[in-house]
Amino acid sequence: MWRVVSIGLVGVALFIGALATGALRPAPVETVSFFQRRCAACHGKDGSLFPEQFAKKYPRDTELIEVIKTMPGGDALNHEGLQAMAAYLRAISREEPYIIWTGQHEGVLEGEISPESAILKATAKRQSLKVERPAGTRWRVRLPAQVKPADVELTAQRGTKRTRLRLKDSPYSHAGK
Ligand code: HEC
Q1: Which burial class, exposed, middle or buried, applies to 113 when counting CB atoms under 10 A from its CB (0-12, 13-18, 19+)?
Q2: Does some domain include residue 10?
Q3: Residues of 85-98 as b/e, b for ≥16 C-beta within 10 angstroms?
Q4: Which ligand 1 atom sits closest to the C-alpha of 88?
Q5: What's the domain range around 126?
Q6: Domain count, the chain
Q7: What digits encode the pLDDT tens for the residues 121-133?
Q8: pTM score of the predicted model
Q9: Cα-to-centroid distance, 50 and ligand 1 (Å)
Q10: What is the pLDDT of residues 122-165, one digit of tens each?
Q11: What are the pocket residues of ligand 1 if the criterion is a CB atom closer than 6 Å to any ligand atom?
Q12: What is the mean pLDDT of the segment spanning 105-121?
């Protein structure tokens, strides 16, 4: 019993430690390409076939997630994957661009944006960073020395709709309710 409690306490301490050092990590799923592969055949590219403002029917993410779980392909998403997908669906429903940070290799951040036509800008400490768009919905930002993911703010613009994401808040936009 005490062994279990102490293991639990070590876990909590590690978790708090990770929060304190601000160790951010990317989302564990590439929501946009997952949607293209598994959902777009029925719901359209970028979800264009969903009814207007459909996500309003599900005020809480838990309700939206229940629906996603019943969809073909929905069982391939873990808890975090479902939350990131719910966020993407909110963005689609509001016709706002969606941004997700999915990886980090040797000072380069990688992620996805939807729709492809949205323009992505990145800043850190008020300095603008170069954004590469290697293909379609993918983006890449090389961090200068001294700049941490927690400093990065991403802005996606499509027509009059704008989405802002501070990586220190979440690895993807339109996060959780
Ligand atoms: C084989 C076709 C098909 C695929 C693939 C599919 N769906 Fe669906 N989806 C439907 C149909 C049909 C409905 C409407 C009927 C219903 O609610 O069951 C629906 C409804 C929904 C709704 C509710 C929309 C509303 O207006 O209430 C959501 C959210 C949704 N799907 C998400 C997804 C996601 C996310 C994926 C991929 C993981 C996905 N679907 C894959 C066919 C599909």
Answers
A1: buried
A2: no
A3: bbbbbbbbbebbbb
A4: 35
A5: 25-166
A6: 1
A7: 999 998 999 999 9
A8: 0.89
A9: 8
A10: 999 989 999 999 999 999 999 999 999 999 999 999 999 999 99
A11: 38-39, 41-43, 50-51, 54, 57, 67-68, 71-74, 85, 89
A12: 97
